[in-house]
Amino acid sequence: MHRNRTYLVTGADSGIGALVAERLTEAGGTVIRCGIGPGLEIRADLSDPAEATRLAAEAERLAPAGLDGVALVAGIAEPSPRTVRLNYFGTLAVLHSLRPLLLRSAAPRAVLVSSASSLSAGAADLIHACLRGDEAAADRAAERAIAGGRGTVIYRSTKIAINRWVRRHAGGPDWAGSGIPLNVVVPGIVDTETARSTMLGNPAQARVLAEALPQPLGFPGPVAAAAAAVAWTVGAENSFMAGQLIFVDGGADVILRGDEPYRRGVRYRPAALVRMIFWSLVSRVRRTSRSSGRR
Fold first, then answer.
1. Which Pfam families does this UniProt record tie to the protein (predicted)?
2. pLDDT tens digits, residue range 238-293?
3. Domain ranges of the chain
4. Which residues of 113-128 are buried (b: 16+ CB within 10 A; e: fewer)?
5. Which neighbouring-strand residues pair with 69?
6. Could you tell me which of 9, 7, 267 has the C-alpha nearest to residue 155?
7. Which pLDDT belongs to residue 237?
8. Can you say whether the dihedral through the CA atoms of 60, 164, 189, 241 is positive or negative?
């Protein structure tokens, strides 16, 4: 599956990224682990454009024959413009800068990691600024969200923008047209150390999250499931899939969207949360009625 392949994984110092790197190594791959912690092959803060450029230069030095797979897992959820710079602009800067190394492989693959929070409503001005490539405007939009007491919308807005960017470009000449399957893995809330120390650390907040993002297969979910999906998506077997958003979210996507586009986003405010729960119950009743009708 991964033997004799060379991979680069960002965010490899913790959580999903660390487990992805571990799985790829155990399967026989050579892994260049990137992050901000100690003991990694490349240490780089991808919220800094210069660091993203340096990462690519280091990857060239460590893998002159090229990369077979790139898994961009690094991300933060701070209510600050730094989240925009890392999750969106830094991630895409690394992706583009590593493309020449991917083109040296006979079977290159690339995968980005998003979040099931992207099912919720984001800040339209921030999303549109990201997709235009206007980092200054995106920073201003993030600052407006913070000033308006909506700093938590920044994280999911960056993930919505990443999802949309991949859907727009994965089938184009730079990616599928060049033989590089590019996809996105979209985890739900999984049991990482970061999640436990932040959003899951407060029982009241954890209950709100569990209601807003229902995961019938478990809340929080297992980190291993998300890591396995990333590892497969970046592997040689994944040769015929491009531009897909692969939800590994315990069933949240299907609960919230059913068989229709999900148009009732939530901003984690009381009224919106009530609406989201209501439509989740309506969808459940509809599915139950359909099942009863088929008997």
1. adh_short_C2
2. 999 999 999 999 999 999 888 765 555 544 556 655 655 565 566 556 555 654 55
3. 6-294
4. bbbbbbbbbbbebbbb
5. 7, 109
6. 267
7. 95
8. negative
Instruction: Report the residue count for the chain.
Output: 295
Neighbours of 245 (CB within 10 A): 18
Helices (H), 133-185: 135-147, 153-169
- Residue keyed to tokens 């148009």: 263
Residue 21 pLDDT: 98
- Rounded distance, CA 262 to CA 259, Å? 9
Of 63, 102, 109, which is closest to residue 236 (Cα–Cα)?
A: 109
In tens, the pLDDT along 105-120 reads: 999 999 999 999 999 8
**pLDDT (average), residues 206-216:** 86
Q: How many CB atoms lie within 10 A of CB 234?
A: 29
Rg (CA), the chain: 19
| CB within 8 Å of 69: residues ≥ 6 apart | 5, 6, 7, 8, 24, 29, 105, 108, 109, 110, 111, 234, 235
What SS3 class is residue 70?
A: strand
Of residues 52, 35, 66, 69, the one with CA closest to residue 231? 69
pLDDT at 259 (0 to 100): 77
Give 14's strand partners.
Answer: none
Q: What homologous superfamily is domain 6-294 in, according to CATH?
A: NAD(P)-binding Rossmann-like Domain (3.40.50.720)
Residue 165 has pLDDT above 50, yes or no: yes
Model confidence, pTM:
0.86
Report how far residue 238's alpha carbon sits from residue 1's, in angstroms, rounded to the nearest whole number: 10
